[in-house]
Amino acid sequence: MERLQIGIIANGGRTGQTDFKAYGSNRIGISGCMVLLVDSGRAIVSVGFKRRVLCRGMMAVLFYDDTFWIERSSHTFRCRYVALSYDNVQEAIYKLTSPYFWDSLSENPLFRPDNAQWELLERWYEQMVWICHNSANEYTDQLLRNNIHNLFMAMDGAMTHSGAGSNKPISRSRILIIKFLKLVAQHFRTTREVSFYARQLCITTTYLYKLTHRRWNLSPKELIDQQTICEIKTLLSNTDMSVKEIAHALNFEDIPYMCRYFRQRTGLSPMQYKNDIKRS
């Protein structure tokens, strides 16, 4: 199933400003990569099932396998965004091979740049806006790929310069957690069995439980279910798919089972949730 493009990228805009309020607490679909620069206000966000604070002067770098939504925000919360497709970022992902950079980004995609770094980020953003609106069409995609690659290289260099570079050892448990979240993002639509993910990681289900419980006080099954519920809510809120079509797309054995699954975790049936969204 193709990754949904909802939220701020639904209209195809690659750059702009948003407060996210139009999307409520729905998951924000990211087709490739989204960079946020927060200009004002404060928000409580969830990234990778972990609650974080995003406020003025901060930056976020989010990828297609991140689960991201705004839990609540101040009335002044506003940020600039750059939203790129996977085609525009895959080259940068393959070119930049520093394992610590990618693991650090998965661990903590929110940053607080210093004043000098913020000025550079603003110039980078202005370049991205110019590329999107002024470059010749045949060069736009390559210029975007080059500029996002430049950003990642600069971030990796800043991490290394600060002493948090690629030589820092990464614990096995942390590597396993990162791999587990990536596997869930890739496969939750087809399988929600914890044993499948444990086998993919070559560990026992008990050890996987210990890892996730120590990290989030949640079981692997609860994390998989959170991802699934987010997807059902997104499909109910942002598509014309029927409950039957959603059940089929997410590999539920039948419609009643998906309805029970959803009600047990939300207190509502899928149609009640859909109707509530329409009324809000």
Quaternary form: single chain
Terminal CA distance reads 28 Å
Given the structure, what is the number of helices?
11
CATH architecture of the largest domain: Sandwich
CATH fold-level label of the largest domain? Jelly Rolls
Which stretches are low in confidence, meaning pLDDT under 50 for 5 or more residues running? 1-12
Overall mean pLDDT? 85
Number of domains: 2
Question: What percentage of residues falls in helices of 4 or more residues?
Answer: 40-55%
- One letter per element, helices H and strands E, the order comes to EEEEEEEHHEHHHHHHHHH
Shape: globular
* Fourth-tier CATH superfamily name of the largest domain: Regulatory protein AraC
Number of strands: 8
Strand composition percent: 15-25%
Supply the helix-strand structural class: alpha+beta
Q: Strand count, sense and closure of the main sheet?
A: 5 strands, antiparallel
